[in-house]
Design goal:
Ribosomal Protein L9, domain 2, 150 residues, 34% helix, 3-stranded antiparallel sheet, 4-stranded mixed sheet, Ribosomal Protein L9, domain 1
Amino acid sequence: MIKIILKKEINKLGKKNDEIIVKSGYALNYLIPNNYAVIANKSEVKKKNEIIKQKKEKKKFLIKKSNKYIKLLKNINIIFYVKSKKSGKIFGSISKKDIKKKLEYNNIFINDNNIYIKNKKIIKTGDYKIKIKFLKNLKTFFKIRVLEKN
């Protein structure tokens, strides 16, 4: 039997960074040569613990930054002035990138992949609820208004 650290999640064995004990032949002939695991010696355990610590610190930083943006988004008022037809349909569309630019103007820097518009693009005048997803369980909504330019 040998103690290893998994480098990837393996069904019925464990998740990434789990320290487990397996039969020596399985580890030495399959898991280690296929880069699924490493032997759990002192240096590898120390390396694994350092990586986990850095990930926790990064997540803590991202949560703090995301909460700051959530507070700012509650008080934000974004208005787009566009040319439109009588039916309310606008010429062109408003996309994630357009919303991102307006947010950046207000010192809110968010990747446009984290912005969710119900139908991908806005093509009519009116009020819209936009979702921003920061982390897996951390999201918020804010409103934008699309008005006809006189």
